Amino acid sequence: MFRSQRTPEAEAYRIKRLREALSDTVITDPLPWAEPVVPMYQEAQVADWRCVPTPELNKAGVGYFRPYNYLPAGWMFEQRVDGEWMRWMSLTPMELESHMPHIAAAWGTVVVAGLGMGFFLYNILRKPKVTRVVVLEKDANLLTLFNKAIRRNCWPHLDKFELWLGDALEFVPEHDVDFLFADIWPYFGDDTALAKTQAIQANIHAKTVGFWGQEWDFVDWLRERDVPDIWKVNRALYRQFCQEVNLPLIEQDSVRYSLLAVSAVIAQVRISTAKAGSEIMKIEPNDYEKLTPMRKQA
Q1: Which residue segment(s) compose the domain that 136 sits in?
Q2: What is the pLDDT of residue 274?
Q3: CA 20 to 30 Å from 10, out of 73, 212, 244, 277?
């Protein structure tokens, strides 16, 4: 959410707390994936959905992996619930960065479970390696809003895009699928994400799979197995996680991803405590219990 402007003193204190919270968790090295491109939108409304602009803000914060000092103007989709407009999707640094490894992994015939604002779709349509994209979306009003809000003349290769209107859990393709990306839950770390992805994959049999917020499930898996030092995770452990959840997940050849995943989860937990005004949470090597309560409310 975007708050009213703070006094200089209040903003300085907020920035200080952010830096304290993230001093040893946020990645400062370049990420191993290309920066995503944000598409252009325009204001629109369909039934209880609307696309509205978000303001430019000169403030420090954190994405999913990295800190930032400036938030450019953008767009968000809001849904009216009980007479109140609630932000449902937006293009914050956290949203952009959390999709980066999945955009990088997309290839061939792609199935995307959940349209959202179309940000992920836009970025994979730009990739020559992606030849066909089938988006699964069950909300017809959201689809209509998307069609009204995007500027079609700025979107590349829409001829590669197909829509399947219905429940992603019921989709059965008539063709081979190279990559599945699932994002049909409102929060990263949603405790239904893994099971829903497994259910979709059981019908699709994609060669490679990614799901939004999968880093939280990896950290949960580490906790359940009492891995002694969360800061010493490695590729072998991540591969074991992929094998045990029976999903051909992305980044299994990466030597950096497992630590990036852990750092992202810890950074988000710490930033939540800093924003709430609580004491900055110190994470010891095996302090998984401090991360678990944050998972469902992240």
Answers
A1: 1-298
A2: 56
A3: 73
Rounded to whole angstroms, how far apart are CA atoms 58 and 71? Answer: 6
CB 103 within 8 A of CB 124: yes
- Residue found by looking up tokens 């730009």 in the block: 126
What three-state secondary structure class fits 167?
coil
Provide the residue type at 48 as one letter: D
Percentages helix, strand, coil for the chain, rounded to the nearest 5?
Answer: 40, 20, 40
Place of tokens 């939280």: 216
**φ, ψ for residue 131, nearest 5 deg:** -105, -20
pLDDT digits (tens, 9 = 90+) for 179-228: 999 999 988 788 999 999 999 999 999 999 999 999 999 999 998 888 88
Q: Could you give the number of structural domains in the chain?
A: 1
Which H/E stretch holds residue 144? helix 140-149
Q: In this structure, what DSSP letter does residue 169 have? A: G
Longest alpha-carbon distance in the chain: 60
Model pLDDT for residues 81-102, shown as the tens digit of each residue: 999 999 888 998 889 999 999 9
For the whole model, what pTM was predicted?
A: 0.87
What is the rounded CA–CA span in Å between residue 41 and residue 121?
14
Which residue in 61, 64, 71, 59 sits closest to 275, CA to CA? 61
- As given in the structure block, the two tokens for residue 296 are 């469902």
